[in-house]
Amino acid sequence: MSFQAYLDNVEEKTGMTPNQFIAEAKKKNLTEFKDLMAWLKNDYHLGTGHARAIIHVIKNGDTFTLKHTTGTHRDESGKLNLDGRNERGKQ
Asked: Is 33 part of a structural domain of the chain?
């Protein structure tokens, strides 16, 4: 599963886009990994992998280092869509 697919799955499960999670974390003043993980697991019932994906975008924004060069985990762009599935392709 690609990084973007993780984010899309979180949106499908919670109804929240990555940008909405970023805004809520800022509002709650959550910055530490352990606090973010507890919040995402307790309030949104996310598993570890999906929570880590959201934590990454909260801490690092829409860019990431490409680690997979082939296979289903490949994200070619190195950029993530944080506005949600419905906004993809509208720009």
From this structure: yes
